[in-house]
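Final report, Chapter 2: Outcomes

The project's central promise was a pipeline that accepts a single protein chain and returns its three-dimensional structure in a standardized token representation, suitable for archiving and comparison. That pipeline is now operational. To close this chapter, we reproduce one record exactly as it appears in the project archive, with the input sequence first and the structure output second.
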Amino acid sequence: MNVTRATFDEVMVPNYNPAGMVPVRGEGSRVWDQDGAEYIDFAGGIAVNVLGHCHPELVSALQEQGSKLWHLSNVFTNEPALRLAKKLTDATFADKAYFANSGAEANEAALKLARRFALEKFNEDKNQIIAFNKGFHGRTFFTVTVGGQTAYSDGFGPKPGAVDHCDYNDLAAFEKLISDNTCAVMMEPLQGEGGIISPEADFVKGVRALCDKHNALLIFDEVQSGVGRTGHLYAYMGLGVTPDILTTAKSLGGGFPIGAMLTTTEIAEHLKPGTHGSTYGGNPLACAVAERALDIVNTPEVLNGVETKEALFREILGQINEKYQVFSEIRGKGMLLGCALNSDYEGRARDFLVAAANENLMCLVAGTNVIRFAPSLIIPDADIKEGLARFERAVAAVASAQ
């Protein structure tokens, strides 16, 4: 059957508006479309393809497990899930893991656990959840309500209650909001969709201290920032602050759908048998691929390489900006970077994304004002340089049309 971009409009729900070209093959940091045109991938499937496309070791893990065991109900456990859980808990603050299929599902589990913990350990009035404006935590009704972007949460009727928001990096506003009725605080230790916003050291430490004061659980949503993206296995490790619950997905499976919630034994015991579940969560295929991805990423070679590649990105982006004067700053950390547009180009991030695609470069936006890069952690320096040469041509095209 021949399918094209036009087929999308015929058969798919119109909640997406994908590009005109249809990718059919990927290798490393390069992708080819139906016409054989080659693209450099700085998008990484929105920070998912942590080792690029079709990494030989991930392909091997999938093929090996695919010939052994695909799926079991949660009446049984399986070896890949147990190995992955052991490796995640050994590498982090956590004692226990829960597996799901996505970041939203991992966040849903974290929020339900936090509510359950507060109800059983304290009282039913301790139910407030605090999150941050411009935050993003998924598209289930609970997680999209906790996310701080009304554009995503409005228009679907009454929302789950006892959810409040304040500005990220505004410790004074947060201190006014938190109380002994707060059960949990959910935050990204580097805001992704909201514009690639790094937390100030005093803010993140202050949030932790106030959570301790009011017996509130601190949930770090590391769906986008985790699995090496910042140069640490998880971003919390570079902040000197440890959460009570951590969620991880995206890069965890290197492209295969998987999410996980990590927490301590004391907190985990409140999800007793029957209180939460997932049909596909922890399936052997996903866990086998994620285990191999984690083994590769959690090495000094890969993690230290992220910092070197960030420096190369920043150097060349600085040179581009000297010529064209389009960015107010380059934000972010590691291989999660944002080019924030200055006032002359305000609100035009999508124009740069389209211009980049015309130059055979795949990139992202984070809101209307930030161009986002989230490539493979092991993208070759040659691909960074070639991709940024293409990006410079895109910037020149937008600037000349100004």
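Archive annotation: The mean pLDDT is 96.
This record, like all others produced under the grant, will remain available to the consortium after the project formally closes.
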